[in-house]
Amino acid sequence: MVSKDVKADDVVATLGDVCAARGLDALTARLAALQTLLAGDLAEVEAALAVVAKNGGTPAHESARHLLELGGKRLRPICVALASHVGSGFTPAALTFAVAVEMIHNATLLHDDVVDLGDRRRGADTARVVYGNAASIFGGDWLLAEALCRVQAAGVEGVLDRMLVVVREMVTAETLQLAARGRVRTSTSEYFKIVQGKTASLFQWAMFAGGRAGGVGTRECEALESYGGMLGLAFQIVDDVLDFAGDPEATGKDLLTDLREGKMTYPLLLAVERDPGLADELEANCRGDEVSVTPEIARRIGRVMSEGGVVQDCLALATRMCRDAAQSLEILPASQARSALQDVALATPLRRK
Amino acid sequence: MVSKDVKADDVVATLGDVCAARGLDALTARLAALQTLLAGDLAEVEAALAVVAKNGGTPAHESARHLLELGGKRLRPICVALASHVGSGFTPAALTFAVAVEMIHNATLLHDDVVDLGDRRRGADTARVVYGNAASIFGGDWLLAEALCRVQAAGVEGVLDRMLVVVREMVTAETLQLAARGRVRTSTSEYFKIVQGKTASLFQWAMFAGGRAGGVGTRECEALESYGGMLGLAFQIVDDVLDFAGDPEATGKDLLTDLREGKMTYPLLLAVERDPGLADELEANCRGDEVSVTPEIARRIGRVMSEGGVVQDCLALATRMCRDAAQSLEILPASQARSALQDVALATPLRRK
């Protein structure tokens, strides 16, 4: 239990460290306050996640447990918790939704790792490496089914309906992403369509469900959802940037993984736009839907990412989105939770893992 | 369209043919009447299934389309349709549920084939052979998500809630079945637990949802559900028998597939009980969780299946269950639909594909 609490604290602490390292003292201090605000809630979430798949006793449940125990940023539960504090606070329904949103997220990761034949995640072997593909497929199915039952049992009007639509949106985005693999000449609108479905929609749901669980009114819930959508897009853009410019020690995964898997992310699309010959070189190195990354390709991409200003421009876009996200909460009455959500948004483009 | 209609008719016609071949003239005549009763409904189901995954345009959607187009017995939609006729008939909600139940069933098959590395189904290459494992995983996810959204949109009270619980039951059974693979010395209670979750629960839901869509009352819906549960168990036992005693031409899959995949079905459990040395021989031929079926093992199993009376006893049990299923409908007022359901139950242990 104690170690779980520490892990939950770490999440917010990491955002704080990053800010501190960059001299953003005021933001650091505010994120420390956020940590105090959420410590109890996140400890409850961790305690609940720790037992989710513990008693299943099958390799599929072990897969789910393995992934859940590796932690992760828990940003979606943080969204649920903060949204609930915009209303009456972290109710039992909010706890249910915070746990469910992390279960759904992990369900998609289990299937993604089988689909991508991924070996490493969160600095450890993936569940499929430890327990096999079959266990990961059924582990993902089980996490999804269990999460839906929990959301249903919470009985908060409209929340399950929205969840089902979001799950369909997420899966549809995964089908599009799979179809687009290895297609070097794709469009930014295709990229944003995929990211909206794959990432932003679940952040939107987290904010909506948290708000509803805290008894927040319809108009305010719409603002929370809008925040969630923009935060989710920005979060994914930063994630995609970290594939090229991250520290594998911190992110827990190798560099250029997206590229090798033939996934054209926003930074890559900008890179191809600024170095037109790059598309030909990538296509020439496509094997099936994967890209064989030669040292020349890695160097060429590294150059356009830094000297061509791609990383800078991606982070600028993410920053703009996060400012819009923070701005969208201005219709809410001022509160500690509102400020905390705005701080989370402002810290998101600064994250390094 | 026309070919689809023919396919739907075929399903019921097949049950009729079997009965005719065995001299059960009265049952044959009644199943012909059933065919007339359902022809319109099943044509609507086929038309709807034909467009389910047509416009997705990704390999995942193609996987789903591939499997749905191969047909199958459509027994679950038949259950929905007949249950609806116990009430006011095949309403738009009943059509939605009939389509959704087949989508859910096919979603599980897509994942099963990836988990089992299955190459053939319904007499054709599996979707994973044609479109790959990744497309089949996301194809299954998509079918499930889409089916849940459709059930939700139908807005019939209690039907979505029950569906979610059933999906969790099905997935849990799959996790148990996977965990039990290659374990030769398992129990019949474990077998029935798996079959209840994997097969019977969805038949129960089909009957419940059809009844609710037709406005059938609570007590009558319970009888329909009870029928569905027993029919589902019997259906699965017959399926498992056909793995040993079926005609691959008719069933569309090779003999002894379950055995090779290390799945201890009811006939196998009886076989091991009646020929105790068989367990040792199976264990000696286990490679991981698969059984390498030597000609000696095949002969030995064939002997106990026929001379040891295993096939006969399994079919006797299925027949008893089907009689109980038919019996459970006696609380309903007499109607053409009730008789038809009873006939479907009586014909189930006679099916040969």
Automatic annotation (TrEMBL), chains A, B:
Keyword line: Magnesium, Metal-binding, Transferase
Superkingdom assignment: Bacteria
A GO molecular function held by the record: metal ion binding
Cofactor(s) needed: Mg(2+)
Pfam families, alphabetized: polyprenyl_synt
Gene Ontology BP annotations: isoprenoid biosynthetic process
Family in the record: Belongs to the FPP/GGPP synthase family.
Protein's recorded name: Octaprenyl diphosphate synthase
Lineage: Bacteria, Pseudomonadati, Myxococcota, Polyangia, Polyangiales
